[in-house]
UniProtKB/TrEMBL annotation:
Species whose genome carries this gene: Bacteroides ovatus
Bias type Polar residues, positions: 710-724, 745-764
GO term, biological process aspect, one: recombinational repair
InterPro entries: DExx_box_DNA_helicase_dom_sf, DNA_helicase_UvrD-like_C, DNA_helicase_UvrD/REP, P-loop_NTPase, UvrD-like_ATP-bd
Domain UvrD-like helicase ATP-binding intervals: 7-321
Listed name of the protein: DNA 3'-5' helicase
Source taxonomy: Bacteria, Pseudomonadati, Bacteroidota, Bacteroidia, Bacteroidales
Amino acid sequence: MNTNYIDELNESQCAAVTYNDGPSLVIAGAGSGKTRVLTYKIAYLLEQENGYNPWNILALTFTNKAAREMKERIARQVGMERARYLWMGTFHSIFSRILRAEATFIGFTSQFTIYDTADSKSLLTAIIDQVLREKVHEELLRKYGNRPDLEEKEKEKVIELKKIYKPGVVQARISNAKNHLVTPTGYAANKEAYEGDMAAKMPAIRDIYARYWDRCRQAGAMDFDDLLVYTYILFRDFPEVLARYRDQFRYVLVDEYQDTNYAQHSIVLQLTKENQRVCVVGDDAQSIYSFRGADIDNILYFTKIYPNTKVFKLEQNYRSTQTIVCAANSLIEKNERQIRKAVFSEKEKGEPIGVFQAYSDVEEGDIVANKIAELRREYRYGYADFAILYRTNAQSRIFEEALRKRSIPYKIYGGLSFYQRKEIKDVIAYFRLVVNPNDEEAFKRIINYPARGIGDTTVGKIISAATDHGVSLWATLCEPLSYGLDINKGTHAKLQGFRELIESFIVDQADKNAYEIGTNIIRQSGIINDVCQDTSPENLSRKENIEELVNGMNDFCALRQEEGNPNVSLTDFLSEIALLTDQDSDKADDGEKITLMTVHSAKGLEFKNVFVVGLEENLFPSGMVGDSPRALEEERRLFYVAITRAEEHCYLSFSKTRFRYGKMEFGSPSRFLRDIDVHYLQLPHEAGVSRAVDEGAGRFRREIEGGFTRSASPSRAPFGSTSSEQRERPKAQIIAPSVPRNLKKVSTVSPSSGAQATSSTSPSVAGVQAGQMIEHERFGLGEVIKVEGTGDNAKATIHFKNAGDKQLLLRFARFKVVE
């Protein structure tokens, strides 16, 4: 034996690695050395006397990176010569290898093409158009007969149907069917699928799926889902092939088993049901991808499928402090459907998890940015030691702007910064064209978005005519005949409709501020209808991003007004955006930057300092959860994943108010906050976020604290286990935030000179004096430094703890005095 497993592994890891008497399930808690166990397990199988040959071991992962790293580690233990012959890779890469070798069995050649998502969507787009045209033609021909205007009616009907049959939506439904091993024939016979399609007003899905399946076969192509489906079919329909691979793969290992879908689970079962030599590793507490087809039941019921399974629990966390581990344990134990484990840490106790209460989402951004600066000063952390985790991509805007204000470098992990996202750039292009109709790039971007039947050929003609006459595209659009634009009557009507739409916005902007004209454009252009056509995750994210843009515009206009600029134009807003996006173009190395990402993207990563933000009801947990216990438990698992990314410090934040859907909303703290044992938390004013100078802030803290369940003082027991008495104790309710009773409206203004001011525009702008504490709607608590001016020109200079100094016009004041 080349490796000393006893010295190099802890007791649980060693037991999992050296067990080889049947199926095994390794439940690997966060930070417990899962990858180490997998690599040592494979090395152990190779190193034993009469051990396995490398080509007899199949190891399946979810990412190429994971497979590559494991193979490199194994090579260091057993040598590259042996490691290179391992069958190790992602499900898709391994199955494509098998399918190429056995392609003739399923009617393909070994040179079949693999379509990526874009290829698949492109083919589906063409098929959707074809199927809808055929069905509409049959329907209208049956209804009206072969009348002269039939073709025009068909075009109109197809355009309407395409708003429902979006390629991304159709692709998702077909992918879901394939992940459940449902072929077109099975789909057509499936009552549940039929009812779902009818409810979605997409009865033609079965025909589209069938044609897509046939077209892929004709093209000698498979998409990613086909690699699973055809592997299953190959093994199901050709027992001799299955027997051959069962003989070859004498031991099968699977990483991240909680993320497997039905198809992946079924293929693993095909390969291992007979010899029972299978080891799966995962953590049910980190099962967060049901929207991608992952089924937590695969890991929860593994021992029922393989009755002789030996279960190993890796419970020592090597990543996080004791406090972070205990807090995470107290959270996840509230889930009913789980494999219980007692995760513990032997690292230092660490600091309590800070809970930050912000008065608004804007102040939340300021609090986080300031705390990062404070931690860097105190601990000498680099920027790369920080991560800000949020539930939805739309939340990034607030934190991006807070970091930019302080010149703190950041990167959006696995995505684009807010103003670089496609849907945002589409809306901004409308704004740009309204402000400057000669903006050619904006013109080309939106002339057919949302789809209005103006194709590339027509756009090409406009560009050619404009180039030939040396005029702008807009000028050509306004006078198509003057510039020799060769188009038919129908196209002319569509171009005229687009021109009239933009002209109406141009007229509107004269007497509307940026927020008002912006919301009109988003609504009347059809953009909001376009993104609300379906509830796919992609479209929900687009919708949330557009709503956040509207929130930002509202905030921008209100703040400018408060600062004494009542007429905030669309041009002003675009100037602000241009400055932000210019900073986005910085191509500096991503290494030393703060990471912003969704919690889903953070899985598998770790940072010294983690901020989990936006912890409010209907945000985290998501408002999409509804009354589903399964969905709520997955949201709790998602929060667990967020907390367990932290090594040294973890902070949780929420705001009392948040701009949503263009208006200010009061929110309640997330129910998950009360799931965490309060002993591991540092509650709002203790965390040093706000100065507890007023009774209102104190009351709010007491309400939150009263909503947490207290348990016995921390000891060795809470490191993963909670008594039945603690588990059965009824949960107290967190009280929704309310405006403290001791806040009063501004009623009189006393300038620093001592002369009383009056206002002809607002009766409630009086009584503010230097030294008073105020609560601002967006910036939170602040102290009045001075008041100057009279009447409508009276303004106060206020120092906000988190937002710095602001000079605000009192007649537009959005704050209250704290007594």
